[in-house]
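Recall that a protein's primary structure is simply its ordered list of amino acids. Everything else, from secondary elements to tertiary packing, is in principle encoded there. The following example makes that idea concrete.
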Amino acid sequence: MSRTLYLIAYDVRCPKRLAKVGRYFHSYRVAGQKSVPEIWVTPAELQRIQHDLQHLLNTQVDHLQVIALDPRQQRHCLGQGHTFTTPFFSVV
C-alpha cells in the first residue's frame, strides 16, 4: 500500500488535550515542528488518524488541518529546518 506525505497543523486550546495530540502524532512523525508534524501514512492510517482525532479534539474550539504534500515538489528549509528525504518508509 502506498504512503503519502502529509503536513498536519493543529491548534489545541487545552494544554491537556494538546499534550495528548502531541503524543498521538509522535509515532507517525517523520519531520516537522511540535504542532506541525509531517507524517508519512497509508490511506487506511490516515482514516484511523482522522477517526481518533475526533475523540481527542474538542471540535468547538480546537483546529486541525491535514494537507497532502506533493513529494515531487522541491522543499526548502530555513534556519534549523530539516526535510524528510527517505525514498521509502517501513513501520516495524
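The chain is about 30% helix and 25% strand. Residues 1-39 form one domain.
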